[in-house]
């Protein structure tokens, strides 16, 4: 017997991906292939998508909803970021093959696309190496942007903690 209480995830269309930075510069046909072939996930509030320390290699693109990023530290968990539509996470696991650096948990009903190294190889690299290169550059740009933000936060923290500035 089929459980009809949980509706199937909605179909993702290429136009839903067109304005997402992760897919910037990809042609319409590539976007159609990704929209049709990448698995769609739905996550309920409170459900963890990834756990700090996990070693799974997959990244996610948020289509709708909201998720929080939490780190474990002295005294418990600390929220360090929120993700919404158009945001991606998990890209580090595709690059450095290290355990997850944080837990990502849904705070609202969330719809996402799931990407693995295998799906990226099949849908991009083997099909169109140029599209694959563009995608990887977009991932690198996102990582660079996040590093710049983290550098700014760290500089503010050190300045506040020490009361010192470089050029006083």
Architecture overview:
This protein is of the alpha+beta class. It has a single domain, classed as Jelly Rolls (Sandwich). Helices cover 37% and strands 24% of the residues. It has five helices and eight strands; from the N terminus they run ααββββββαββαα. The protein has a four-stranded antiparallel sheet. Strand 4 and strand 5 form a beta hairpin. Helix 4 crosses helix 5. The termini are far apart. The model has no long low-confidence stretch (mean pLDDT 89).
Instruction: Tell me the β content.
Output: 15-25%
Distance between the termini: 72 Å
SS-derived structural category? alpha+beta
Shape: globular
Number of DSSP strands? 8
- What's the CATH class, please? Mainly Beta
Mean of pLDDT: 89
Low-confidence stretches: none
Q: Radius of gyration, rounded?
A: 18 Å
Output the number of helix runs. 5
Named at the architecture level, the CATH assignment is Sandwich
CATH-defined topology: Jelly Rolls
Strand order of the largest sheet: 1-8-3-6
Count of discrete domains: 1
Based on the structure, what is the oligomeric state of the protein chains? single chain
| CATH superfamily caption | Jelly Rolls
Major β-sheet annotation? 4 strands, antiparallel
List the keywords:
alpha+beta; Jelly Rolls; four-stranded antiparallel beta sheet; 8 strands; globular
Layout of secondary structure:
Layout: H1 14-17, H2 28-37, E1 40-43, E2 48-50, E3 59-64, E4 67-73, E5 76-83, E6 88-89, H3 91-95, E7 103-106, E8 110-115, H4 117-125, H5 129-162
Helix pairs in contact: 4-5
């Amino acid at each position: 017997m089929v459980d009809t209480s949980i509706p199937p995830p909605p179909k993702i269309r290429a136009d839903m991906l067109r304005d997402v930075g992760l897919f910037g510069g990809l042609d319409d046909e590539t976007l159609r292939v990704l929209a049709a072939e990448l698995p769609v996930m739905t996550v309920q509030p409170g459900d963890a998508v990834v756990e700090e320390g996990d070693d799974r290699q997959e990244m996610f693109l948020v289509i709708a909803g909201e998720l929080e990023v939490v780190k474990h530290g002295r005294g418990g968990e600390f929220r360090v970021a929120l993700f919404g539509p158009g945001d991606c996470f998990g890209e580090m696991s595709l690059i450095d093959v290290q355990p997850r650096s944080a837990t990502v948990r849904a705070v609202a009903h969330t719809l996402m696309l799931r990407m693995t190294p295998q799906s990226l190889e099949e849908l991009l690299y083997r099909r169109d190496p140029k599209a694959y290169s563009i995608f990887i550059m977009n991932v690198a740009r996102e990582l660079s942007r996040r590093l710049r933000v983290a550098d700014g936060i760290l500089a503010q923290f050190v300045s506040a903690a020490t009361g010192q500035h470089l050029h006083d």
